[in-house]
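Researcher: We're teaching a course module on how sequence relates to structure. For the next exercise, students receive a sequence and then see the predicted structure as C-alpha cells, so they can try to spot secondary structure elements on their own. Here is the exercise chain.
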Amino acid sequence: QVQLVESGGGLVQAGGSLRLSCAASGRSFSAYAMGWFRQAPGKEREFVAAISRSDGATYYADSVKGRFTISRDNAKNTVYLQMNSLKPEDTAVYYCAAVWGMVRSGPAGYDYWGQGTQVTVSS
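Model: And here is the predicted structure for the students to work with:
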C-alpha cells in the first residue's frame, strides 16, 4: 500500500516554471514505477511523464518533451516534476501515480493515486 501526496502547484505566468513534488509513504518506494498525469476541465486524464523504479529511465508525452523533467529520490520517497516554459495549455490538475514494477503507459495501469495539485498558467 502506498499513499501519495502532491505539492507545489500554483499560479504562474506563461513561460514560467514550477516544480511539483509527490511524497510517498509506505514501504518499498523504490519498487514502484512512478508517473505524473494531468486532467483539464472537460478532458480525460492524460499521461505526462513516468520514471522507472530501477534504472531511472524516463518517458514523456510529446506535448511536454523538452520542457518537463521527471526525477525521483528513493532515499526521500519522493518523485518530482520540473516544469519549465509553461504554457496556458498546461493548466490542469496534476496527479502523481504509482504502480508496482514496470512503467505503464496509461492511467488504468496505475494502482495508487494522489489527490492532485492545481497548476494554472496565465497568458
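Model: If you want an answer key for the exercise: The two ends are 40 Å apart (CA to CA). The chain has a mean pLDDT of 95.
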